[in-house]
Amino acid sequence: MRVSVFATVSLVLAMACGPGKGADAPETANLTEKNVTPGDGVDLQVGCTPSGPELCFNAVDDNCNGVIDEGCGITTGVLQFTVAWGDSPADVDLIVTDPNGERVDETSRASKGGLHLDKDCPGENGCHGQNIENIFMEGLDVPRGKYTVEVRLVDAKSASLPVKVRVSARVGNHTFGTTVNLSPPSGPSASAAGSPSPGERGASSSRRSFSFEL
Ligand SMILES: [Ca+2]
Ligand SMILES: [Ca+2]
Q1: Half-sphere exposure of residue 99, counting CA atoms within 13 Å on the CB side?
Q2: Are 48 and 175 in contact, with CB atoms under 8 Å apart?
């Protein structure tokens, strides 16, 4: 009996101390967004419906395991922000602003708070003809406060308009996101002139954003 109890205790301890590295650490379970604020034209989908195995380069948590595009050569963390726009020739940027007001994008790829841009397509190795940009939080010391996630159409090039862009966020052990349509500010369906009215919700713009707090 003593051996059995010892074995049981050992097993429990082993499970409790588990691999637990990086994004799988227990601390992530307590990380939850609040005060989520979608910008104009942003319809955030907070629930996750598994659709099968994880697919790469679509910025969707297809298997609902709380990680976006895992196994696709991009890095995750307790926070992860990913945009994907297929094989369109357009240039789209992902910009994340942390609680200290630091912006992470292609011109400033890391913040003191721990955010890193690790994929900037098109043009970088590993894009495989599929456009994706990915920003992740390194480590578990996550700054608390407001995060703003923005996608911006930098250059439509020869792309069909509007450019459909998927943007997703991982917070702790779950993901949420949206699909937005981007067009140049002068485009026929853009809502850049003046302040977008509620009636323009869903119309195309050259930029879309949402924010949340930790
Ligand atoms: Ca996944
Ligand atoms: Ca995916």
Answers
A1: 11
A2: yes
Asked if the model's pLDDT at residue 111 lies above 90, the reply is yes
* Closest ligand by atom to 65 CA: 1
Helices of type H across the chain: 2-17
Hey, is 8 helix, strand or coil? Answer: helix
Identify the bridge partners of residue 135 per DSSP, sorted by sequence position.
81, 117
SS3 label, residue 6: helix
- The domain spans of the chain are 23-213
Strand locations in 5-90, DSSP E? 34-38, 79-84
Q: 65 pLDDT band (50/70/90 cuts)?
A: very high
**Total-model pTM:** 0.80
Å from CA of 73 to ligand 2 middle = 12
Residue 58 C-alpha to ligand 2 middle, in angstroms? 5
**172 Cβ partners below 8 Å, 6+ apart?**
28, 29, 30, 31, 32, 66, 78
Cα 174 to averaged position of ligand 1 atoms, centre (Å): 9
Q: How confident is the model at residue 113 (pLDDT cuts 50, 70, 90)?
A: very high
Distance 103 CA to ligand 2 centre (A): 25
* Span from the CA of 56 to the centroid of ligand 2 (angstroms): 5
| Ligand 2: centre distance to CA 49 (Å) | 12
Q: How far is the CA of 163 from the centre of ligand 2 (A)?
A: 19
CB 136 within 8 A of CB 116: yes
